[in-house]
Amino acid sequence: MYLLMAVGIGLTAGLLSGMFGIGGGLVTTPAIRLLLGRPDLIAVGTPLPVIIPTAVAGAIAYARRGSADVRAGFTMGLVGGAFAVIGAQLTTLVGGTVVLVVTGVVICWSAGEMLFLALCPRRSEVGVGGLAERDRRPIRLAALGVVAGLYSGFLGLGGGFIVVPALVRYFGFPAKRAVGTSLVVVGLLAVPGTIAHYALGNVDVGLAGLLAIGVVPGALLGARITAAAKEKTVRVGFALMLLAVGAFLALSELGVF
Predict the structure, then answer these.
(1) 164 closest CA partner among 192, 138, 184, 193
(2) pLDDT (tens digit, 9 = 90+) per residue, 204-255?
(3) Which residue ranges make up each domain of the chain?
(4) I want to staple 11 with a disulfide (CB 3.0 to 4.6 A). Which of 24, 76, 218, 256 is the partner?
């Protein structure tokens, strides 16, 4: 049962990664902790190596359709990579419970962003403040990479939950292009984060292998679904799921459940 559950978690994470440009850690971190009963820091560190093949498969699928800004993705990912290591070091200083409570809060924030983008499509298409494509300067993209890198390393997530809403709202990216670009960023951020968390002893290699079995086919399928689906319906459903997962994770770590 444990093996099937782990593979199933990987498949689900890959599917959502391909659909929404996240690394899959939004699913795998709570699932490892709540469904598989593993220690908190293992739940934070183990998803990172699994994110790499997920993001690469999804990014390639989007790039082939012309739905990924690879240059912008590399700018954010390479700059953010160094900060992912800093974020990983912070997890040891504050402890696993704090990290997971923060993860739950950030997941809820991401759900709110997704709902905003779904329910306010006109604003989401042009970005807050009407930022145009000429405003997508490398320095602005690098700053977003710094924020995403810190969150990625600290929470053991890919950073896509930060990148996708930000690209749409503040850089004027069309939604699907933001998803594809995010996967490029996520794949790059996960590498230094993986190395740092492995060195800290926060990665269960066997569990990561089981999760990886399901993530690649899931990511490819997710990319196809997003290409054909109505964005508003998918985003609202995803946002509600994120809200439920984030709230349950935070409240369970605080001892409410």
Answers:
(1) 184
(2) 999 999 999 998 898 889 888 877 766 677 667 767 877 877 787 777 777 7
(3) 2-253
(4) 218
